[in-house]
What we know:
This protein is an alpha/beta fold. The protein folds into 2 domains: 2-178, Rossmann fold, CATH 3.40.50; 217-253, no CATH class. Helix content is 30%, strand content 19%. It is built from 6 helices and 7 strands, in the order αβαβαββαβαββα. The protein has helices at residues 2-19, 38-45, 57-65, 110-124, 140-152, 222-234, and strands spanning 28-32, 49-54, 71-74, 88-94, 125-135, 156-162, 171-177. It has a 7-stranded mixed beta sheet with strand order 3-2-1-4-5-7-6, with helices on both faces. Helix 3 links the parallel strand 2 and strand 3. It is elongated and about 70 Å long. It starts with a helix and ends in a 20-residue tail after the last helix. One of its GO terms (cellular component) is nucleolus. Its main location: cytoplasm. This is 18S rRNA (guanine-N(7))-methyltransferase. It comes from Anseranas semipalmata.
Amino acid sequence: SSRVVEIQAQMSERAVELLGLPEDRPCLLLDVGCGSGLSGDYISEEGHYWIGMDISPAMLDVAVEREVEGDLLLADVGHGIPFRPGMFDGCISISAVQWLCNADKKSHSPPKRLYRFFSTLYTALARGSRAVLQLYPENSEQLELITAQAMRAGFTGGMVVDYPNSTKAKKFFLCLFVGTSGTLPKGLGTECADGEELHQAKFTNERTRFRNAKGKSVKKSRDWILEKKERRRRQGKEVRADTKYTGRKRRPHF
């Protein structure tokens, strides 16, 4: 749909911006999980060259039909990045890396697949370059697994969170540096109400407390209500004070 295309373009633009590419020359970028080539379209518009990898033949067929300008490779990134050392000036990925956390086959080990991906990606990138991977983590444990394997592979950097206090606009970008430790970019919409800025993302297990055995949110519980009220306070909204009666169910009227 047009809405999906618009969102994909926005995230691609943000990912390329976080790469911090030089403005005086075109670069060769790797697009991990390129799909139908929507991210690659933006890369081409910016005057850069790209090679896309994806595990889905159907998505790559769509990219071929769309006559994208980049080269395409059918491959599972969990098996590694099959390119020569130092080949790319940067790497982006939109909504793809979190799928490596799934064990789709008995032989799949998420930590091993993630490490294989990050270690070979580190080798394929030129020294001083960056990789920016936009992802949708299911929880803080998945986020920690991904970042831990990236750091183990040699990357430095961290998570850039755009609009951290927004439910719909919140986006996670894992910004990784190769060879040198750069300054982590600031996320969009991170200014607090008093004018200060949030300098780092804070990941906790708060959201997992509100899930039952089937993985669904336990709505209307005291913890759920307190967390929702705190989120509204961070957004600058007027919220009633917490008391011992917060979240308490009223007795039925006869």
